[in-house]
Amino acid sequence: MAAREEKEKKSQSKPGTEQEQVVEKQGFGTDNFPVIGIGASAGGLEALSNLFAKIPTDTGAAFVVVQHLAPSKDSAMPELLGRHTRMPVHQVADNIEIRPNTIYLIPPGKNMSIANGTLQLLDQVEPLRHPIDFFFKSLSLDRGAGAIGIILSGTGTDGTAGARAIKAELGLVIAQDPTEAKFDGMPRSAMDAGLTDYVLAAIDIPEQVIKHIRRIPDIVATSPESPGDLAKLLPKIITLIRNETSNDFSYYKENTLLRRIRRRMSINQISDASQYVRFLQHNPKETEVLFKELLINVTSFFRDREAFEVLKTVLKDRLEQKPRQEEMRVWVVGCATGEEAYSIAIIIRECLDEMDRDYKVQVFGTDLDSDAIDIARKGVYFPNIVDDISPERLKRFFTEQDETYRVNNDIREMLVFAANNLIKDPPFLKIDLISARNLLIYLKGDLQKKIMPLFHYSLRENGILFLSPSETVGEFTDIFANLDRKWKIYQARVAMNTNSSGLPFPFQAVISAAPPGNQPGGNEIQQADITQITDGILVSSYAPPYVVIDRTGNVIYVRGDPGKYLKLPEGKATMNILEMARRGLRGHLSLVIREARSQKTESHREGVRLDSPGTPAVDITARPVLVRGQPTEYLMLIFRKSIFRETSPVEDKAEKTKKRKKPSEKDQHILELEEELIRSRKDQQVTTEELETSNEDLKSSNEELLSSNEELLSTNEELRSVNEELGTLNTENQERIEQLARARGDLHNLLNTMDVATLFLDTDLNIKSYTPAATGLFKLRETDVGRPLTDIATNLTYDRLLEDAREVLRTLVLRDTEVQSREGRWYLMRIIPYRTEENAVVGLLITYFHIDERRILEAALHYTQSIVDTVREPMLVLDSELRVISANRSFYQIFRNSERETVGCKIWELGNRQWDIPRLRELLEKILPGNTSFDNFPVEHDFPIIGHRRMLLNSRRMYEELGGEKILLAIEDVTGQPGVEKLFTAK
């Protein structure tokens, strides 16, 4: 035996030549061959036997069977399965390296995982706690597209969460046909979740598995370096998906799309890319399935628990600084089926409980997949969530019902779920936390560059961005600061200047034209090193002054001293460049700004004179500023001292005219006209400047209206989401109403059929409801509902009903009382507390049962007992087991036995066992089954106290309405009587 075990161990530790040849023949290496995980529970043995009976021994794959096994018993599965296959079957030992064409079985009481081709065992915290999910999840990470999950007969939902993980890594999922499975819970759960690629009878599964194994190399072969025909046709496939679903996948990483499309081609057994395109064109259902698989809905509660603990600390700090009147808003992008959104809501609720504060919290969960959104809205999850949620949170925030867990209402009411396209639909605004975990890794870099400014725009000041460990903000470190490097938690930088739309741009003010409090967005002085400082001194000494303006004309950055050309206006402070321009400069500024923006190039104005005496002429240059990831909306305005002459031709002519000694009348008139022309031009310039100012004001107002419109669009989107939520709630409520109506009808028919008078009272003893039979005892009408019981006339002679009712309410102990009506009928009145499902007492239930027949029978029985007690002969009443039910007075008097020593004892146990006579027992035992009797059975015995006696026994079958069949035994004392000697002699 030891030698055999050593041989098996060696065969597992090192692949044989035959195994290597099979693996290489299938197109795999010795370390990346497929692994088939098989999950089975109740009724799974028959399915496993049928499965392995049809699987060849040279598939090149390893088979790992995970079952629900009793932890305290050894498993006989290795021997049982060994009868149906020629492959070696092993029960797994810890850290065993798997090999192809081998079957591995999980041992009892263990969870099992696979990592780098090695099976590892862990003790189960609780018996049968989703070991299939546990293994499938590790299998998906270890083998990727080479992972195959098979779900066979079993109860519950184990295997569903693991199947989702396998599908996410391009693996295959097969479920046993529920109509064939002895227990259809596990396979049906995977089917209902939309995770099965095939649903087959156990005997048909091997054929599909073998076909899929052959196609795995094609699925994983896609690479950007060798795109092949499929990559060339990818735009057509994306177009078909967009036409069918209105969702554009052109921004997704090409390699991700190709691998998943190849997987669908493999499932449909199509090898040619152009053929698959035609297949999509003629099969909209396949397009929908492909769309679902491209969404990659993989999520769980508290994924990366440590990350959520760090996030909880960050959120708690934010809540402590948050104004109480301000709403806490969270946006979970790509929420899938809602687990992450609920997780964040839970930690926010925990923070509020720990802080003893109460904020209005709104968590928005959005996703492209409307089916996933429907699941999230219901808030009902399979039992396997216990693997991801601590027992304390599970008890506090979930309710277990019908083998599922439902999110409690206090958390559910915090969330709104909606189908949303991040690229096309308006974003949510004024958000405190955006969670976009495992979203960016599937998107191209260009789209990521668009999304990051969008997230920044959506966040409030110092808002939080929560990504997965494999994601970063990339080059956008200027708008996001890193709070936690390991778990990728970022904070929107508050030091960034922002334009009116809230979008950031990379300017940091060093010298400000106005106090920081008056500048839009504020300024922050940053000094990097001595080089920057000296460069700043050099620039301020020799470079011309300049300002940077945004698209609304507001000054957001100043370098040098532009005080000769700009000044703060009186009244309300403004940083608008046209409002700050000195007289004579405004019109030229407006023209040069407009020209630079419209032509997207530099614009110049030279020799511009100001109306201020002694101010030199100035050259103005407007240069567009390019900002990464944004359209050109910023202009740099440079002011240089003009090298041109500083006097106008009109002024030169006027000066020459003044030098003439005697100007003629004609010359004088020309001078007057020229002066008039100068004044008209100045007036025209002023008018033009005012018009330009008005236009700028209108532009600013228009921008504000556009911003408001965006807000309204966002609000409209939120309202639409809320409306969808209300629609879902309305559907749920309608279903509950129908259930209540059916239950009410059932209860109504039941009460009418029982013909039992019943009163339903509240805690104030007011009538809540009653059955039709109650109108015979109480004078009730429909209008009496809600009236006190004291106002209702009764047909009963009992006058302590109110006292009894109050006593039951006080003690919560039921009370039975026999009461009589005025017609002489008797009722058993029972008063019990009325309890809800939560065991709360909300009133009383009073029932009246007819007991006339019982009282008549009891009276007859009492009458019969009185007669029996007057008979001088001793009598016993026995049950079918010959146990004494009762005895008459003569029996107790003659034999000196007490009732305690007699009733309940079998007849042969009485006294000193004087009745322990085999023949007597035989006769008594025949009376009830055979409906027999006997007379004058002689018994002679020395009795205690009364001495020697001769007795004759007579017995008959008797029937009581209340007690059923009985035996009556009469005992006649014939001691000393003549004529009975023969009876005792015969004995």
Q: Care to give the gist of this entry?
A:
This protein is an alpha/beta fold and 987 residues long.
Description:
The chain has 987 residues and is α/β, with parallel strands linked by helices. The protein folds into six domains: 2-220, 3-Layer(aba) Sandwich (Rossmann fold), CATH 3.40.50; 229-295, no CATH class; 305-492, Vaccinia Virus protein VP39 (Rossmann fold, 3-Layer(aba) Sandwich); 501-646, PAS domain (Beta-Lactamase), CATH 3.30.450.20; 755-850, PAS domain (Beta-Lactamase), CATH 3.30.450.20; 861-986, Beta-Lactamase, CATH 3.30.450.20. Helix content is 40%, strand content 21%. It is built from 29 helices and 35 strands. Strands 3-5-2-1-8-9-10 form a seven-stranded parallel β-sheet, sandwiched between helices. A seven-stranded mixed β-sheet has the order 16-12-11-17-18-20-19, sandwiched between helices. It has a five-stranded antiparallel β-sheet with strand order 22-21-25-24-23, with helices on one face. It is elongated. The relative contact order is 0.04.
